[in-house]
Amino acid sequence: MGCMRKRRENWRPSRSGISLVEILVSVSIIALLIAMLLPAVQTVRESARKSTCQSHLKQIALGCEQFESVHGHYPTSQLFEQHGVGPDGTTWSFLAQLLPHLEQSNLHTEGGIPEKTLRESGIADRQVAVFLCPSDPHSNTGPRLDAGNMYEVDFAVGQTNYKGVCGSNWGADISQGWSATDSGTRWPNPSRTGSFDGLNEGDGLFSRVDWKRPRSKDRIIDGTSSTMMLGEALPKYDTYCSWPYANNVHSTCAIPPNIKDDTNPQDWPNTQSFRSEHVGGLHFAFADGSVHFINESIDLTVYRSLATIAGNEVTGFSD
Fold it and tell me: How far is CA 135 from CA 50, 237, 264, in A?
């Protein structure tokens, strides 16, 4: 009995808990692993968003091809004269005209496009997924009230990250009687005919008044694989970005890509260009339906040449 008592007195329970030091070490290791994995996760997510953006541009480009095949010309935008200006005119953009070719026939019919005015349509503030890049958090927040020709009357319009290429000549606006000097653009550039008015006399595939001069595929003298049709835009830097309105769906390649400075977004002569939130460049859809990622450091002369439909330039383009 004495021996048994002695053994019991010397017995101690074994240690089964975890010390504070071990907990801190474990937390540190987990935090380090998360820090190492997070950039990889973000890269994968951005790759997926970039792929979706590319797909959206591809769909719009193919929609333009289908429209041209059916109507004999690419979709047009309506501005000025009988169409008017702003929300109380039948001022529909080529993107709006394109809706039936983007599986959006119901929206096109509901809005009475192109006969009703934007205000009468009741659909001008809709956000259309195919017109939005998932990498741009700004455009995905909902319709905007500050769009060009709309902010004066607080009219809401759905945003867009994709705009038509109006060419590479830029600076003037004959509708306002402005020359390139009057506009104050930092990027004046004339067309082969000497016009600086890329808004109304652009040397690209689309124009805000191309209802007057619809363009067909045979007008693309430079070749469809060497002519940019559509590009990415960021509404944050350019108030002239909304899908329904004819004056909000075109940009110029006179201005270099991805310029993101502190210029007033309403200063169209210096902001109505192409940009993206993708690292290093942006997507463009070409007139042959292909989509290419254009490096933001592309030579400006080459970039401008790719924007024209009949400039006869030798671009040497390769993505």
Answer: 7, 15, 22
